[in-house]
Amino acid sequence: MWILILSSVTVAWIILKLIRVGRRESTLPPGPPTVPLLGNLNVFPTEFAFFKFTEWAREYGDIYSLKIGPDTAVVLTSMKAVKELIDQQSGLTCDRPKSYMVDTMYEKIHAALMRYNEDWRLLRKTMHPILTPSGAAEHQPIQLMYELLNSPERFFTHLKRYSTSVITSVVFGKHFPRYECPEIDAIFKSVDAAERVFEVGAHPPVDQLPILNYIPDRWARWKRMAKWGNRLATRAYFHLLKVCEERIQNGEENGCYLENVIKNQEEYGLTRRMVGYLGGVLLDGGAHTTSAFLQTLILLLTAFPEVQRKAQEEIDRVIGQDRAPRLEDFAQLPYCQALINETHRFRPVAPLGIPHAMLNEGEYRNYVLPKGTLIFINTWGIYHDPDVYDDPETFNPDRYLVNQFGVKAGVDVRDFRNTVAFGGGRRVCPGIHLANTSLNLNVMNLLWAFDFSPPTDPKTGRPIPVDTFKYDKGAFYAPTPFRCNIKPRTPVKARIIEEEFSNAQSVFEKFEGTSSVELEPVDETF
Asked: CB 3.0 to 4.6 Å from 425: which of 48, 86, 191, 406, for a disulfide?
């Protein structure tokens, strides 16, 4: 009898506990209604999550909570919330969420994604030199212009090669002259794998429901994907590391960032594995984001010819026709600066960034955020808030000429910064200055050198509009490949591009091959 009563009480207690799983605690910010066990998993978006997150922000405010099974996430959709919680409380919000996918793909030592610990602090400190712009990055845009001049129909792949080659030159001392280089193919496959592995909502909630870990690999596609990503990433990272190590051994250094790290790795307290992943995180962060931004830029210049015309008028007025742009010209080009800011706002490359996590329990606006709470910075929602921006769904660089943040008159801008696309707090992108240098140079060069226009229908002769909403799924937001016409603006500018590319060969040579690691014969011929 007592055994029956005890069993009944135990079963009832277990049922009660399970029913409470997924329920939103009263100390959390409001959010969508929950259901037992799942919380909000039943309505959690599986692709383009930022659209749904922004819809919820309009209903529940600039900070709201989601229950992901037993775990909690909060979504920030205002500059004020980002500044107060991510920047001003960076010591509390500097962690990353636990993640089976991340730990499997990157072995817990990827500086952008790993948990906050002593190894992360060590890697972050080692990354400090990359915070400053590099001379190597300033020479790379000329090859991109040369490629667009001679094979404009391949502009999409040219942008991917360029953005990858810039970061591999700066970090590993390795320049890729062609998109077809075998090494660059390995890098692209690694980046594509990361895109699919880390897309918010794309995989089962294995971290919230650990029982899923017991499912064999053959029936767990997410497990196979994470392990596949690890194989691709380590192959790319450690091949490039070996190239750099052999160059040092042969006394053929070219001044890249990782050479100094390798020579001082014992002093820095780094293992070879950590050095390889350190180069990898800089490669991943720089290659895809830069190409995605430039692809979006060309898409928008093609779609909005009046914006292109205004930017080119400014370029011609300041720089003229007889020389290519230089980095120091950028300070005199306010409309081009506005164009870059508006491109970041209109189509942010990382609409949700990389989620932060609470290192310990903390308070914000009288809410209690438990230890481990995920924190999403909803960059898309911030930049498309109609209470902050006039007609936010319209691409309009002029808004940034009215004021530096492009906001409506009367909006309080004390909490604003134009770098929210690069994250915040202790996890802000370490390559922000290098990225900006690259973008500034390329925006000037592209506008100075080329006209971008929609393709024409061969039957009617009419322009075929490009679709500014046709973007690929994934953690980063990049347009699906599209067609456009790219033509040099004048014969003089075409000649200048040819001459500058020829003059830059001596710069490229020291990054292209050595006696220890030569270029492939086809690349050397190229």
From this structure: 86
Q: Global pTM?
A: 0.89
| Identity of the residue numbered 191 | V
Q: How many domains does the chain have?
A: 1
Q: Which of 512, 505, 507, 524 is nearest to 174 (CA)?
A: 512
Average pLDDT of the chain? 87
In angstroms, the CA 136 to CA 123 distance is 23
Q: Give the structural domain span for 261.
A: 27-525
Can you state the percent helix, strand and coil of the chain, rounding each to 5? 55, 5, 40
State pLDDT tens for residues 318-352.
999 999 999 999 999 999 999 999 999 999 999 99
| Residue 160: CB atoms within 10 Å | 23
CA gap 227, 143 in Å, rounded: 36
Q: Is residue 494 part of a domain?
A: yes
Cβ proximity of 262 and 244 under 8 Å: yes
Contact 63, 76 (CB under 8 A): yes
Q: Is residue 11 part of a domain?
A: no
385: enclosing H helix or E strand: none
Query: Can you say which residues are annotated as belonging to the binding site for heme?
Result: 429
Q: Over range 189-216, report the average pLDDT.
A: 75
Which pLDDT does position 358 carry in this prediction? 97
Q: For residue 436, what is the domain's CATH number?
A: 1.10.630.10
The DSSP bridge partners found for residue 307 are none
Q: How far apart are CA 438 and CA 271, in angstroms?
A: 31
The C-alpha R_g of the chain, in whole angstroms, comes to: 25
In a domain, residue 16? The reply is: no
d(CA 126, CA 257): 10
Strand pairing category for 362-364 and 367-369:
antiparallel
Distance CA 348, CA 378 (A): 10
Is residue 196 classed as helix, strand or coil in its secondary structure? Answer: helix
Question: What gap in Å lies between CA 408 and CA 406, rounded to an integer?
Answer: 7
Query: Could you tell me which residues come within 8 angstroms of residue 375 by beta carbon, excluding any fewer than 6 positions away?
Result: 73, 74, 76, 85, 86, 93, 355, 356, 357, 358
Range in 123-127, 194-198, 387-391, 475-479 with the lowest mean pLDDT: 194-198
Residue 469 domain-assigned (yes or no)? yes
Asked if residue 258 lies in contact with residue 277, where contact means CB atoms within 8 angstroms, the answer is no
Binding site members: 429
**Are the CB atoms for 311 and 447 separated by under 8 Å?**
yes
Q: Which residue has the tokens 């650990």?
A: 210
pLDDT at 201 over 80: no
* 196 close to 225: Cβ distance less than 8 angstroms: yes
